[in-house]
């Protein structure tokens, strides 16, 4: 006897505002959420924790940095690895109506190049090795919750940024294998940045870890990540500060010190440049 799973249909009209076919949220996954399929496109980013993503008849272990692009109709649900509130599985979701996504791409020069991404009937899985997608999603989520002038424009811009990033990841996947030696060296550096972000990390020392000269290191790091080594190190620090602001009640000065900044005016200015708001405003927004 075959047991039929209970799968419900989630409609975009139940999520979208009447004039905006985009919905963005940050969700703590649990066992009360039911497996579902939907009539919209969905981009999912695993922000924190670990667990399993059930996709149709398949299941995949997930952790921070996993990305999924889900077409219309496929059933899915996340299950956390632990039910402990100390180890939550947290995901960002970006939902957009298919016709709105298609119209967005057709409205800009060269946008139709990305159209195959929308039209594919299969799901896609990606990794976010450098944290760039995480930053895009954090910014998109902030804009969705805000009531700033130009909110709608910012949201469409944010969705376009996500789609472009996924399209480029598809291209990198197809070209994988070429020039593999240098990326492996940079992967070691990037791992060091993420594990020792609170420390001063001179570019000269990082170049030595990668096994290349300092000038070549700067050039290849920029080519591989789209930003300078200094900017990348700053982003990792500020992302950790964001996490601590969301998940703890530690003093902002303690958080600044924990991520490597002793100069509070510098930290506050850098945080505002990266996120558009001060640390205090960010914490207030995240808790609302």
UniProtKB/TrEMBL annotation:
Residues 187-285 form the HTH araC/xylS-type domain. The keyword Transcription regulation applies. GO terms for molecular function: DNA-binding transcription factor activity; sequence-specific DNA binding. Keywords: DNA-binding, Transcription, Transcription regulation. This is AraC family transcriptional regulator.
């Amino acid at each position: 006897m075959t047991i039929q799973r209970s799968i419900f249909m989630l409609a975009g009209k139940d999520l979208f505002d009447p004039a905006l076919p985009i919905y963005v949220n940050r969700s703590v996954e649990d066992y009360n959420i039911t497996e579902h399929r939907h009539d919209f496109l969905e981009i999912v980013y695993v922000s924190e924790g670990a667990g399993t993503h059930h996709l149709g008849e398949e299941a995949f272990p997930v952790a921070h940095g996993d990305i999924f692009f889900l077409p219309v109709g496929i059933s899915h649900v996340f299950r956390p690895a632990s039910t402990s509130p100390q180890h939550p599985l947290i995901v960002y979701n970006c939902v957009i109506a298919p016709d709105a996504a298609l119209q967005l791409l057709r409205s800009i020069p060269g946008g139709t190049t990305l159209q195959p991404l929308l039209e594919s009937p299969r799901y896609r899985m990606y990794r976010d090795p450098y944290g760039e997608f995480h930053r895009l999603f954090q910014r998109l989520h902030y804009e969705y919750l805000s009531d700033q002038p130009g909110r709608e424009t910012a949201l469409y811009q944010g969705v376009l940024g996500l789609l472009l990033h996924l399209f480029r990841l598809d291209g990198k996947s197809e070209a994988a294998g070429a020039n593999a030696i240098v990326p492996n060296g940079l992967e070691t550096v990037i791992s060091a940045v993420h594990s020792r972000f609170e420390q001063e990390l001179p570019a000269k020392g990082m170049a030595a870890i990668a096994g290349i000269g300092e000038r070549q290191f700067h050039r290849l790091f920029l080519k591989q990540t789209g930003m300078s080594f200094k900017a990348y190190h700053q982003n990792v620090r500020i992302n950790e500060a964001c996490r601590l602001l969301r998940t703890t009640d530690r003093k902002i000065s303690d958080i600044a010190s924990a991520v490597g900044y002793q100069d509070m005016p510098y930290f506050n200015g850098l945080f505002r440049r990266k996120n558009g708001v001060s640390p205090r405003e960010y914490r207030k927004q995240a808790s609302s």
